[in-house]
From TrEMBL:
PANTHER family: ABC TRANSPORTER I FAMILY MEMBER 17. Transmembrane segments: none annotated. GO terms for biological process: phosphate ion transmembrane transport. NCBIfam families: 3a0107s01c2. It comes from Natranaeroarchaeum sulfidigenes. The gene is pstB2. This is ABC-type phosphate transport system, ATPase component.
Length: 292
């Protein structure tokens, strides 16, 4: 691969849309004439899918998806349960490779390089494309070791204290834990645990951060903290967030992708356009609560 540093988050969860399982390995249908690839006109998108299809055995989880996601913006992915949101998200850093039944065709390019090429190391890729999951999943280690884990996997041995501090600061957690770095990450509150997982994901210095329902298990105060953090992270990272909460998508994102039943990406546009003047009636019906 052109960038040999491409490569992983330090913790993963695998599911086929609903089942969740942590693993320490990563850090209604449109008619034919309505279907079209939603390739955006953004300049030099950092991520580009073209005719991306995912099958789980006999089940087609993702219809052909063509889309370009902009750099250093927040893209929200919304849609009803089982519509392919998480499946698409997990294609972006090849998490679906860990699902035996998954068959992926088409292309998905990161900075112009197809991440499914034979010469791409998925582990290296996930260091460039980190991931945060719905349920906070800190390791049963100290706060310090949670954040340092990905750095050690990466082979970093110098300036570890500085790197851990920087990641915790970026995750808006440093001031709360700086005097107890030897405390177990499992002893933190739910919101703190999720920010610790974000710190762990950003410590290896990725370019993209994927988030799968990062606030759904949190209370309103912790959710607000995560949303504020997402806005701050987008200044330095490209952030892609799956959420069932449409109000949250409207608050935090620059772009929104709408997946509907059948694994179809029906519309992708500026978030304001999606919520105020969508092009498709089905999208408007979903957003206004007529179905879904």
């Amino acid at each position: 691969m052109s960038d040999t540093s491409l490569g992983t988050t330090t913790a993963t969860e695998i599911d086929t849309e609903t089942d969740e399982e942590s693993a320490d390995r990563s850090l209604g249908t449109e008619t034919d004439n309505e279907m079209e690839p939603w390739i955006t006109d953004v300049r030099s998108p950092i991520l580009e899918a073209e005719e991306l299809v995912v099958q789980y055995g006999d089940i087609q989880a993702l219809q052909p998806v063509s889309v370009g996601l902009p750099e250093k913006e927040v893209t929200a992915i919304i849609g009803p349960s089982g519509c392919g949101k998480s499946t698409f998200l997990r294609c972006i850093n090849r998490m679906n490779d860990l699902v035996d039944a998954a068959d992926i065709t088409g292309s998905l390019r990161f900075r112009g390089k197809d991440i499914y090429d034979d010469d791409v190391d998925p582990v290296a890729l996930r260091r460039k494309i980190g991931m945060v999951f719905q349920k906070p999943n800190p390791f049963p280690k100290s706060i310090y070791d949670n954040v340092a884990y990905g750095l050690r996997i990466k082979g970093q041995t110098e300036n570890m204290d500085e790197a851990v501090e920087q990641a915790l600061k970026r995750a808006a957690l440093w001031d709360e834990v700086k005097d107890q770095l030897d405390k177990s990450g499992l002893d933190l509150s739910g919101g703190q645990q999720q920010r610790l997982c974000i710190a762990r994901a950003i410590a290896p210095d990725p370019e993209v951060i994927l988030m799968d329902e990062p606030a759904s298990a949190l209370d309103p105060v912790a959710t607000s903290q995560i949303e504020d953090l997402i806005a701050e992270l987008s200044e330095d990272y490209t952030v892609v967030v799956v959420t069932h909460n449409m109000q949250q998508a409207a608050r935090i994102s620059d772009k929104t992708a709408v997946f509907l039943t059948g694994g179809q990406l029906v519309e992708f546009d500026d978030t304001n356009t999606i919520f105020e003047n969508p092009k498709h009636q089905r999208v408007e019906d979903y957003i206004t609560g007529k179905f879904g």
